[in-house]
Amino acid sequence: MPWDRNQMAERAGQELQDGWYVNLGIGIPTLVANYIPQGVNVTLQSENGMLGMGPFPVDGDEDPDLINAGKQTITELPQTAYFDSAQSFAMIRGGKIAMAILGAMEVAENGDLANWMIPGKLVKGMGGAMDLVAGVGRVVVVMDHASKHGESKVLHRCTLPLTGAGVVNRIITNLGVLDVVPGGLKIVECADGVTEAELRAATEATIIG
Fold first, then answer.
1. Which residues contact 148 (CB under 8 A, 6 or more apart)?
2. Predicted local distance difference test score (pLDDT) of residue 124
3. CA–CA separation, 49 vs 14, rounded Å?
4. Residue 186: CB atoms within 10 Å
5. Superfamily assignment of 5-201 in CATH?
């Protein structure tokens, strides 16, 4: 069976390394806060002005004043720090964040990322994704492999407006894990019960090796 949202987030949690400062994007990536591996000490950053996010609160313990960039209620930790948006983006643009785990609408085989708008649809703004992909050390995308219509979202070339060109390092979908390498994508791991042939067949992008 393909991975569900929580299994994708748990797999993305394996990308975390001890001592890193990490930004979690809106959507599935926010769930990674619940799957930090034991013994790994990371500091999660939210671009709306929080360093040191805890896991999601249990029902009944929500604090409406504590939210992440996706406006979800979160928890704080003893070491949590708060600051304004300018300071937050100074961290991002200054290369202080080791990795961003982001959602996506489309990813291309050369690492291009599209995750901020669909032409013709009203959007509130681009958020912090463009700054993140330009300023962090590593970009991991977590998303469904196909659209609601069954079309691959892992493409030869993105059709939507780009968030960043050649910025993605690793793609984690419900079907498996792919790395962006010279010439295309390389299969790192298949989801439980998914064969390499099934992963290849569901992917428009070039898979090498």
1. none
2. 61
3. 25
4. 15
5. Glutaconate Coenzyme A-transferase (3.40.1080.10)
Distance from the first to the final alpha carbon of the chain: 24
DSSP characters over 110-160: TS-EE-S--TTS--S--TTHHHHHHHSSEEEEE--SB-TTS-BSEESS--S
Q: CA 111, CA 122: separation in Å to the nearest integer? A: 26
- Active-site residue, selected from the candidate residues 15, 47, 106, 109: 47
Q: Which residues pair with 101 in a beta bridge?
A: 24, 140
Place of tokens 């001890």: 18
For the chain, the farthest-separated pair of C-alpha atoms sits apart, in whole angstroms, at: 50
Distance of CA 23 to the CA centre of its chain: 8
Q: Which of 44-58, 68-82, 107-121, 140-154 has the highest mean pLDDT?
A: 140-154
Span 73-82, pLDDT tens digits: 999 999 999 9
In three-state secondary structure terms, 11 is: helix
Parse the chain into domains and list their residue ranges: 5-201
151 is catalytic: no
